[in-house]
Prior knowledge:
single chain; alpha/beta; 7-stranded mixed sheet
Amino acid sequence: xxxxxWQNFLSDSKVRHYIADKIWDLYKKxxxxxxxEIWPGKWAITKLIxxxxxxxxIVDKDDKLIQNLEFRMxxxxxxxxxxxxxxxxxLDVAKILKEEKLKTEQTLIVWNxxxxxxxxxxxxxxxDWNPKFPWWIFMLQDEVWQKIKSDAKKKSFLRWxxxxxxxxxxxxxxPAKAFSPAPKVKSxxxxxxxxxxKLRIERDKLIVFLDLYSGFSRKTLGAIxxxxxxxxxxxxxKLKIDFGCKKTSPEWLYFFEIPENLKKKRxxxxxxxxxxxxxxx
Length: 281
C-alpha cells in the first residue's frame, strides 16, 4: 500500500508542469532562498522543482512515502536538503528554518494536501497575525475556494483569516480526472502573497471577534450579542475569554459593541469597513 492517509495523487502531466512552472516563476521573481514542500505525495511536483533551490525541504507525515522517497533518491539526483517525516500540524517550521540559518520571509511554501486537513493547516499557519511566510502556492477543494476568495458572497472564518494579511489569487481549475484516484470534487490552484498595506484593525481583537461570532452563521450580529451577553454574564462591559490562538493562551478582556446600523447584519455580510467600526470602537 502506498498510503493510509486518503490522498488523491496528482497524475496529469500538463497540470503537474503548470504547477511546477508557477513555483519556479514565483520563487525566482521573489528572490526566495528556500523552498518547502508539504505532503509531496508520489513526488509528482517534487521531481520538477527540486533544482529550484539548494535549500529544498520536504515535510510528509506518511512514513511509507518518505521511506520510498529516500530509497528512490539513491537512484535519482534529487536536490533535497532535508526530509522531515512528521505531522506538519505539530511541526515548528520556522524553528527548523532558523536551525538551518534560513529566513522565513524568504521562503516559499507549496503543498497538495488531503482535503480533510485543509482547515486545520490554514488555521495553523494563518491564525498568527504576524505572518512569517510571505508566499504560498497550494491546491484547494474548489468549494473551499468559493468561501475564501476576496469577493465571496458568504464570508467564512477562513476567508477573513486569509484575506486579512494576504492577496488571495486563483490560478487554475484542476479537474478530478487529474488525480488518481479521482476525488468527487473539483480542485483549484491558489497563490497567496503578503499584502503591503495593512488594515486599520487590531489583529488580536479581530481573531477574538471571529472566534466569538463566526459560530453563529445564521444569526444577526445583534442576536449573537444577546446570546454572548447571557452566556458569559458580562460584568462592567468586559468579557473574559481564553484567546487560544497563541500558544501562551493569555486571557483577553474585550467587549465588542455592535453599532445599531450593523445589528441586523450577519457576519458573512460585513466588509472590512464594518469590521473596523466594531473592532476599533
